[in-house]
Amino acid sequence: MATVDLKDVKKVYPGGVEAVKGVSIAIPDRELCVLVGPSGCGKSTLLRMIAGLEAISAGIVAIDGKVVNAIGPTERDIAMVFQNYALYPHMKVYDNMAYGLRNRGTPKDEIDSRVRSTAKVLELSALLDRRPRELSGGQRQRVAMGRAIVRNPKVFLFDEPLSNLDAKLRGQMRVEIKNLQRTLGVTSVYVTHDQLEAMTLADILVVMNAGLVEQTGAPLDVYEKPASIFVASFIGAPPMNLLALTGSFSGPVLADGTAIGFAARETPAVTLGFRPEDADVTFNAEALAGALVLPATVEAVEPVGAESFLHCAAGGSRIVVRVSGRAAAKPGDQLRVVAKAEKLHWFDQAGKRVD
Amino acid sequence: MIGQSPLRTFIAHAVLILGILIVAFPIYYTFVASTHTLQTILRPPLPLLPGGQLWNNYSEALFGGIGRIGGVSVGQLLLNTTVMALGLAVGKIFISILSAYAIVFFRFPLRMTFFWLIFITLMLPVEVRILPTYKVMVDLGMIDTYAGLIIPLIASATATLLFRQFFMTIPGELVEAARVDGAGPWRFFFDILLPLSRTNIAALFVILFIYGWTQYLWPLLVTNSNDMNTIVIALRKMVSFADADTEWHLVMVTAMLAIVPPILVVVLMQRWFVRGLVESEK
C-alpha cells in the first residue's frame, strides 16, 4: 500500500536531450495511473525513473511519502512487468517467480507457498515446471505478471505489457490486469501508447506529449473535456474532427468560407472540434438552431458492423462521422453534418481548450 | 535428399569412403607402426596389419621412460600437456568472461579505451612479443614451471570479443528485470549470465583446449628440462636425423597417445559444442 508522488521530475540525457521536462503527478493509494502518449513522449523514461532504472536529473520521486531518488530499484520495493516479459530463459516458471524472493532471503517454505498461490490465481499451476520458451505469448505474459505479484511490492510498474500480444488476447489480459490490480489493491503505474488500453484501465489518466503532461484526470473527464488539441486528437478512435477557423471572434468562418453562426463564449478560438459520435448526417436542408451544420461530401464509408464511419470532406478539411448500424450514404453523396453546439470543443492559438 | 537413384547413392558413398580413407590411413598406419618392434619398422616394407607388440610398446612408453628424452615417460608428458591445455582453456575462459562482463555491463571511465586495447592485441601474434616475454619469464624464475607455460598465453582477445558479442545480445530488459528482482552484479553474473553462457563456454573450451594441446613455440622456449616437456615438444625431440637413433616404435606410440585427449574432449563435448555454435535462443 503506497502513494506515488512525482514533483517536477526531469530527465536530461548526457547529450543535452531533455526527455522529461518537469512532470508532477500524485497517485493516491491503490489507484492505477496510466501514462499515455506517442512514442518518444517520455512516458517510458518517466516509468523507468520511478523504477530506479534511470537516474533522475531533477525533481523528486517519492514512494509512500519517502523520497527514493537516491536508492536503487531493489530497495524501492517495486515490481515491474516489461514489454518483452524479460523472463529468465534458463529458469523454470517456478524459479522465475521465486527468484526475487530468494534474493531477498525469504524462507524457502514461504517462497513455495507464495509462488504456488500466485500461480493458482494466474492459472499457471500446471506450467510451473516449464521453461519460458515452451510457453505461448499469453502464458509468458502471465508469468511476468506472476513474478511481479508474488513479491507483493508497494508499487506495480507496467511498461507496455500487452503490446506483444494479439488483439484478442490483449483485450482479455486488459480485463485481467484491471481485476487483479483492484483485488490486490496495489498502486500501479502503467505505460502504454494505446489509447483504448489507457481509457479502460486508468483510474487516473495522464496524457503526455514531448516530455510534458498535457492533461491529468479521470479517463472520461479527459475524453469529454480534452485540455488541448493534442489530447483531443490522441484520445478517442477515430480521433476528434478538427476544423480551422478564420474570421472575427464573434463570427468565425471555416477554411472553405462557411460561416458558423456562433462562437466560443470568451476567448477567440482558431480551431473547432467535435467527436465523430457527437455528429450526425442528414439529407434534409432545413436550418437547425443551436447546431453546427456543415455541407459535406462523402468520400468513403467504413462499415464495422454495429456502426459505420463516414469519411467526408467538409469545411475545408476531412472529417469522420460515426453513425450507428449501416450507413444510408454512399461515396459521392452530398449531405449535411450536424453537431450540437454543446458538443463542440474550441481551441485557441496555442492549442489550449477555451470555453 | 535430391538424388535417390542407386547410382547416385553409390557414387556419394564412394566419394565419402574415399575421403575417409585418405584422412584415416596415415593415422591407421601410425597405429600399425606402434604395434611392431623397432626392427620390423626399420626393415621395409612396413606390414599393413598390426603386429604383436602392442602391449610391450605402450607399457614401455607410458611407464618405462624413453631414452632419447632423458628417460621421461609418456605418462609424465601427457600430464604436463593436460595441465597446460586445461590451465589455458579454463584460465582464458575465466579471464575473458570477466573482462567481457566488465566491458559490457559496467559504465566506467575509459571503458572503450580498454576495449580497444584488448581488441588491438588481436593484431599482435604471440611470436612478436615472444622474446620480451621470455626475458620476463627468466627474470621471474618461471622457466620449467606450469605457471610459465600457462600465464603468458592466458589472455585471450578472441575469447573476450566472443563473450562481449554474446553479452551484447542479452536484452537490456533482462538485466533490468534482474535488478528489480534484487540481483546485484555478482548474483546477476552467477544466476543469469553464466547459465546463459553455458553453450558458449563449452564451445570455447573445446577450441581452447585443442589450442593449448597443440602449442609448440612457447613450450619449446620455456621448458628446458625434459620432464617439463609437453607431448608435442617431446615428440619432436624423440626424432633424430639418424634413423638408427630414433626409437620409431615409441615415437608412433607417443603420437597415438597424443591425439587421444583432444579426441576425447571433442567427442565428450560435441553435443554442447554444436549447440553453442548453432543455438541462439534467448
Automatic annotation (TrEMBL), chain A:
<protein>
    <submittedName>
        <fullName>sn-glycerol-3-phosphate ABC transporter ATP-binding protein UgpC</fullName>
    </submittedName>
</protein>
<keyword id="KW-0067">ATP-binding</keyword>
<dbReference type="InterPro" id="IPR017871">
    <property type="entry name" value="ABC_transporter-like_CS"/>
</dbReference>
<dbReference type="GO" id="GO:0005524">
    <property type="term" value="F:ATP binding"/>
</dbReference>
<keyword id="KW-1278">Translocase</keyword>
<keyword id="KW-0997">Cell inner membrane</keyword>
<dbReference type="GO" id="GO:0008643">
    <property type="term" value="P:carbohydrate transport"/>
</dbReference>
<dbReference type="Pfam" id="PF00005">
    <property type="entry name" value="ABC_tran"/>
</dbReference>
<dbReference type="InterPro" id="IPR027417">
    <property type="entry name" value="P-loop_NTPase"/>
</dbReference>
<dbReference type="Pfam" id="PF03459">
    <property type="entry name" value="TOBE"/>
</dbReference>
<keyword id="KW-0813">Transport</keyword>
<dbReference type="InterPro" id="IPR003593">
    <property type="entry name" value="AAA+_ATPase"/>
</dbReference>
<comment type="similarity">
    <text>Belongs to the ABC transporter superfamily.</text>
</comment>
<dbReference type="GO" id="GO:0016887">
    <property type="term" value="F:ATP hydrolysis activity"/>
</dbReference>
<dbReference type="InterPro" id="IPR008995">
    <property type="entry name" value="Mo/tungstate-bd_C_term_dom"/>
</dbReference>
<dbReference type="GO" id="GO:0001407">
    <property type="term" value="P:glycerophosphodiester transmembrane transport"/>
</dbReference>
<dbReference type="GO" id="GO:0015794">
    <property type="term" value="P:glycerol-3-phosphate transmembrane transport"/>
</dbReference>
<dbReference type="InterPro" id="IPR005116">
    <property type="entry name" value="Transp-assoc_OB_typ1"/>
</dbReference>
<feature type="domain" description="ABC transporter">
    <location>
        <begin position="4"/>
        <end position="235"/>
    </location>
</feature>
<keyword id="KW-0547">Nucleotide-binding</keyword>
<dbReference type="InterPro" id="IPR012340">
    <property type="entry name" value="NA-bd_OB-fold"/>
</dbReference>
<dbReference type="InterPro" id="IPR015855">
    <property type="entry name" value="ABC_transpr_MalK-like"/>
</dbReference>
From TrEMBL, chain B:
<feature type="domain" description="ABC transmembrane type-1">
    <location>
        <begin position="78"/>
        <end position="269"/>
    </location>
</feature>
<comment type="similarity">
    <text>Belongs to the binding-protein-dependent transport system permease family.</text>
</comment>
<keyword id="KW-0997">Cell inner membrane</keyword>
<keyword id="KW-0813">Transport</keyword>
<feature type="transmembrane region" description="Helical">
    <location>
        <begin position="248"/>
        <end position="269"/>
    </location>
</feature>
<feature type="transmembrane region" description="Helical">
    <location>
        <begin position="146"/>
        <end position="167"/>
    </location>
</feature>
<dbReference type="GO" id="GO:0005886">
    <property type="term" value="C:plasma membrane"/>
</dbReference>
<feature type="transmembrane region" description="Helical">
    <location>
        <begin position="113"/>
        <end position="134"/>
    </location>
</feature>
<dbReference type="Pfam" id="PF00528">
    <property type="entry name" value="BPD_transp_1"/>
</dbReference>
<comment type="function">
    <text>Part of the ABC transporter complex UgpBAEC involved in sn-glycerol-3-phosphate (G3P) import. Probably responsible for the translocation of the substrate across the membrane.</text>
</comment>
<keyword id="KW-0812">Transmembrane</keyword>
<comment type="subunit">
    <text>The complex is composed of two ATP-binding proteins (UgpC), two transmembrane proteins (UgpA and UgpE) and a solute-binding protein (UgpB).</text>
</comment>
<protein>
    <recommendedName>
        <fullName>sn-glycerol-3-phosphate transport system permease protein UgpE</fullName>
    </recommendedName>
</protein>
<dbReference type="GO" id="GO:0055085">
    <property type="term" value="P:transmembrane transport"/>
</dbReference>
<dbReference type="InterPro" id="IPR035906">
    <property type="entry name" value="MetI-like_sf"/>
</dbReference>
<feature type="transmembrane region" description="Helical">
    <location>
        <begin position="188"/>
        <end position="213"/>
    </location>
</feature>
<feature type="transmembrane region" description="Helical">
    <location>
        <begin position="83"/>
        <end position="106"/>
    </location>
</feature>
<keyword id="KW-1003">Cell membrane</keyword>
<feature type="transmembrane region" description="Helical">
    <location>
        <begin position="7"/>
        <end position="29"/>
    </location>
</feature>
<keyword id="KW-0472">Membrane</keyword>
<keyword id="KW-1133">Transmembrane helix</keyword>
<dbReference type="InterPro" id="IPR000515">
    <property type="entry name" value="MetI-like"/>
</dbReference>
